[in-house]
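Sequence design from tokenized structure. All designs in this work follow the same two-part layout: the structure record, then the generated sequence. An example of the structure record is given first.
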């Protein structure tokens, strides 16, 4: 979510579709679990990541004018990023403007991109074949972005606010795995064309995302409702998948979404929120990879969240009802209700120990892709087939957590179990169409369980410096009920160590993670090898007066490992970057 509302891009439909959120402009990132997720959507079975964007000014600037400049360099792609943000007050108006430009080339990798190439080389006595295999760079992994915004807020003295913002972005990026020789990507001065030299035709994406946002909030004094907030967003999203210089598929997404909430209090200590949300999405695709027919999706929902705060316990309960209607060209439509409820409890045992319990019953509607997909998707190397008979997905889950906090040690352990009825996913099959493996959407009963642990030992904490050691662990298993088969793209267990040393103006952090091999694969899915990931970063606050200068120097994948995430559908052809450094300088004034 972006500030509590849908982004309006196509990133949820396919992993090769980039998200239209820019981290540099994030004021904060909220990770939500439990009843509070029902404020945003019934499909948030795994939780909500809500990015609160500062390009919409929601408070008056403390200074008449303030801002931030950023320069970032990444050695892996020899890429640079430059950005600026400026906010200031003009009477009762607060204005915010921003601009960012990023230019990243194809990034470096430790060895060959394709796993089968490496397997073919094993045992080869003739090194001629090895010389033919491209290594050291992941072809067609470039990325270019330009984005800007203008936001204006009226902030009268009565505490109300009305905001209007325009945000636009223009992105071009390559989709790896579609050429077997190194390709160079160059732009002309206006960045209107991409020239692809040598090798086969590459697949790249030209994405444009424009949004208009209108927000308001108004405090109400002397009534049980304390604050009313609302937001309306319009998004015009264009996405063209290019094959060399030729247009392959043209995607379009038009989104209207409106949301209104009222915050209230019971006896001044038991806060609550109730509200409504409606949305309309008009999607179309035209071209060789038009996976789904033109469709219109309408959602309408009501939700409520209530808290009860006592001395040692906090209870939270939420409910949400959501109606969805999908109409697709030349297809049977879909309509139905999804209802979700959640209950959470947090209990404090003395000063150091606390425990949490979370119970969920969540329902999720199928998407138009899951219902109507029928065509090749070269970017993920899949031929996708939907199932028009799919109904809602239901999950019943429980989370148990235990936390310990003291001056010397912090520990957090969470275990979870989710029981899915009609879990919707795309299963690989042994069939092929157009040279691609067929993935069939379907629904099965499934079980997810796992745990995550994080502990920190505060070895040294004084007025001048601090030194912490930490351990990290996470693990999840998922299987199909009544079957020996596993679900695809389930990440392996990971364990890690972290050390942090710092003083008032600098800190040094080192993190080591080991991901185990994933051999519990779904039918027709390849396993993923284990890897180690070691990173170190140095953060400095430079002693300049008048503004705050921050320097970050980070070394990532320092062991130069061949890292492939099992969750990626193109892991066998696109590893992560090899050993590289990142240098970032920012100044806040």
């Amino acid at each position: 979510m972006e500030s509590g509302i849908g982004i309006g891009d196509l990133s949820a439909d396919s992993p090769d579709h980039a998200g239209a959120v820019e981290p540099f402009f994030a004021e904060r990132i909220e990770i939500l679990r439990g009843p509070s997720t029902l404020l945003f959507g019934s499909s948030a079975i795994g939780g909500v990541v809500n990015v609160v964007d500062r390009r919409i000014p929601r408070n008056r600037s403390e200074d008449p004018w303030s801002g931030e400049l950023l320069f970032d360099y990444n050695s892996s792609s020899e890429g640079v990023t430059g950005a600026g943000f400026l906010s200031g007050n003009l009477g009762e108006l607060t204005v915010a403007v921003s601009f960012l430009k990023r230019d990243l080339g194809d990034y470096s990798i430790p060895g060959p991109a394709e796993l089968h190439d490496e397997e073919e080389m094993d045992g080869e006595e003739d090194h001629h074949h090895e010389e033919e295999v491209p290594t050291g760079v992941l072809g067609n992994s470039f990325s270019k972005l330009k984005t800007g915004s203008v936001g204006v807020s009226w902030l009268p003295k009565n505490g109300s606010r009305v905001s209007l913002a325009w945000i636009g972005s223009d992105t071009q990026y390559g989709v790896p795995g579609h050429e077997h020789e190194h390709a160079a990507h160059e732009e002309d001065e206006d960045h209107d064309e991409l020239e692809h030299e040598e090798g086969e035709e590459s697949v790249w994406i030209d994405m444009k995302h424009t949004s208009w946002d209108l927000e308001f909030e108004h405090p109400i004094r002397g009534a049980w409702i304390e604050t009313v907030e609302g937001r309306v967003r319009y998004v015009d999203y264009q996405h063209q998948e290019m094959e060399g210089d030729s247009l392959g598929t043209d995607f379009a997404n038009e989104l209207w979404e409106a949301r209104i909430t009222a915050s209230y209090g019971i006896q001044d200590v038991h806060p609550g929120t109730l509200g409504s949300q409606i949305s309309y999405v008009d999607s179309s695709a035209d071209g060789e990879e038009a996976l789904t027919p033109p469709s219109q999706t309408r959602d309408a929902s009501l939700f409520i969240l209530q808290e009860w705060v006592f001395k040692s316990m906090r209870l939270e309960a939420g409910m949400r009802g959501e109606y969805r209607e999908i109409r697709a060209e030349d297809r049977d439509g879909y309509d139905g209700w999804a209802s979700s409820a959640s209950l959470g409890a947090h209990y404090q045992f003395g000063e150091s120990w606390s425990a949490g319990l979370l119970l969920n019953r969540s329902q999720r509607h199928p998407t138009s892709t899951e219902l109507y997909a029928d065509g090749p998707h070269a970017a993920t190397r899949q031929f996708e087939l939907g199932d028009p008979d799919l109904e809602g997905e239901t999950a019943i889950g429980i989370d148990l957590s235990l936390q310990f906090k003291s001056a010397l040690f912090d520990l957090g352990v969470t275990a979870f179990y989710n029981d899915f009825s009609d879990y919707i996913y795309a299963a690989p099959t042994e069939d092929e169409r157009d040279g691609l493996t067929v993935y069939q959407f379907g629904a099965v009963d499934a079980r997810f369980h796992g745990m995550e642990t994080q502990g920190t030992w505060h070895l040294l904490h004084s007025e001048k410096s601090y030194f912490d050691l930490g351990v990290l662990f996470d693990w999840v298993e998922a299987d199909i009920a009544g079957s020996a088969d596993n679900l695809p793209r389930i990440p392996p267990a990971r364990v890690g160590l972290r050390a942090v040393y710092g003083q008032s103006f600098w800190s040094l952090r080192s993190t080591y993670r080991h991901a185990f091999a994933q051999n519990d694969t779904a039918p027709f899915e390849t396993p993923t090898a284990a890897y180690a990931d070691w990173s170190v970063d140095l953060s400095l606050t430079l002693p300049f007066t008048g503004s705050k200068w921050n320097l970050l120097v980070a070394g990532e994948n320092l062991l130069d490992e061949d890292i492939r995430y099992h969750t990626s559908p193109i892991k066998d052809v696109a590893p992560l970057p090899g050993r590289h450094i990142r240098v970032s300088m920012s100044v806040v004034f």
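Residues 117-132, 180-199 have pLDDT under 50 and may be disordered. We note this feature because it recurs in several other targets discussed in the main text.
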